[in-house]
Design goal:
single chain; 313 residues; alpha+beta; 2 domains; four-stranded antiparallel β-sheet; two-stranded antiparallel ribbon
């Protein structure tokens, strides 16, 4: 067994610990110290101007060891990749070199994990666009009233309600898909009662039959409290359940990776990130069961996007 050298003092250990990971350890990285003692490290993560970010053991967490604590001549022979990084960063003025050796081959920093998950959420899904009547029931708008005494009030209601339906539908198409619906895509009934003409919107067709969106569009959409078409959006997702499936699978995979301990993250940050992820998961999952939205969805989804750095480019 390799002896632990006396220069690895507790004060050198950074307050940065890993969630327990079983089965990650393979062969360690053996580096000779300046005192001539070989030390086996669980992994070497980063080469900086002043030294190495590395891990002696998983239980102790990550430590920082200055370059002068190593036998650099021996390093040049036995650890050439680390020595090349030393030569690169030692003069200064260059970014740290990511080595990712040993246990770090399977671990990710929080920044790396966030970036990977953001990129995964950029995958596109091709979606059908449905007409207005897929969202609003127009079945009672024709032939329901036959007596002249009811026609004026009925037509007034049809005109007002159908106009509201059309506006809500067109807002949804614009806010989620960023598409405009020209007036020519509206169909109308023209009705007359007591000398007044009523225009009832009987249908609004989408400007396209299908459209591709990144998966993260739906995260941004429900995280934006300024959007006014969320109720129609929920109905759309219930029709196109594959989007819900993909969103839930995305969040499930993210949570599994965190809980498996493959991300270097302190416990406090982990608790906060898992909490925001669980809230987003709950809101998305609830859309399967209910057409109504929880009052906190905008706040919770915005928190998820902020904590998981979706607003960073």
């Amino acid at each position: 067994m390799h002896k632990r050298p006396d220069y690895f003092l507790p004060s050198a250990i950074i307050c940065f610990f890993l969630v327990a990971v079983s089965g990650l350890f393979g062969q360690g990285i053996v580096i000779k110290g300046a005192n001539g003692v070989d030390v086996e490290f669980a992994g070497v993560r980063l080469a900086e101007q002043g030294g190495l970010r590395m891990m002696l053991s998983q239980e102790q967490g990550e430590i920082f060891v200055p370059w002068e604590r190593f036998d650099l001549q021996d390093m040049a022979d036995r650890n050439p990749s680390i020595y090349r990084a030393y030569r690169e960063v030692r003069p200064g003025g260059v970014p740290p070199v990511d080595l990712g050796l040993g246990i770090y081959e399977k671990l990710q920093t929080l920044d790396q994990f966030c970036e990977a998950m953001r990129k995964r959420a950029e995958q596109t899904v091709n979606l059908p666009l449905h007409p207005m009547t897929a969202f609003f029931d127009m079945s009672g708008f024709e032939g329901r009233y036959t007596t002249s005494n009811n026609l004026y009030a009925t037509y007034t209601n049809w005109e007002r309600t159908s106009t509201r339906y059309a506006e809500e539908y067109e807002r949804f198409i614009n806010e989620l898909f960023s598409l405009e619906t020209p007036e020519s895509y509206r169909s109308h009934w023209t009705l007359t009662s007591r000398g007044r003409r009523f225009i009832v919107v009987s249908e609004v067709r989408p400007p396209k039959t299908s459209h591709s969106l990144p998966l993260n569009t739906f995260l941004y959409y429900f995280g934006d409290g300024e959007m006014r078409s969320h109720n129609v959006g929920v109905n759309y997702l219930r029709m196109e359940s594959k989007v819900l499936d993909e969103l839930i699978a995305y969040l499930d995979d993210k949570r599994t990776t965190l809980e498996s301990g493959f991300v270097m993250i302190d416990q406090r940050t982990l608790n906060s990130r898992v909490s925001s992820l669980n809230m987003a998961h709950r809101h998305i999952s609830n859309m399967r069961e209910s057409r109504s939205l929880n009052a906190n969805i905008h706040r919770d989804m915005e928190r998820y996007l902020r904590e998981w750095r979706f607003f960073e480019n």
